[in-house]
Amino acid sequence: MPVSDIVLKPLVRVPCAIIEREGKVLAAQRSAVGSLPMKWEFPGGKLEAGETEEEGLVREIREELCVEILIGERLPVTDRNDVWRTIRLVPFVCELASDEIILTEHEQILWLSPEELLELDWAEADRGVLLNYFKYLTIESEFDSEVTSLLSSLSKPPQPEPGPSRRPAKS
Q: Which of 45, 94, 120, 137 is buried most deeply by CB count within 10 Å?
């Protein structure tokens, strides 16, 4: 294929915050309107021109949650390919520097243990972030295959469970 035939998709960098507090992690549910309605994510958003990843993350968390954060370790990026662009989530482990969260864009937030995070219906790109977070916690040796299996099952439609056979009620 000649180089002139290669179409490059724009790369959109999206820093996101894995906010920890007292052994719990903040999960945010997206709004019912817009893209990925009601899916769970780690809050954050697209960079503006000239911003560093850290500056963009601080701005986005102020806008979405009305709080200040302290940014810690950067985790491996996760890419999600759309038809016309590539979204690159750039996760940072963070903690709150102020306490009162006011939601401006999300339906709700939950503070969950790392294991409880697996029970949510995550946006596709955030599943990779979640897996990298578990590796960061160094619990992959115990949970890696379980976590990988659970995360991959999140993308599959649920299969109906066999129920009891229905019998006509006795009169």
A: 94
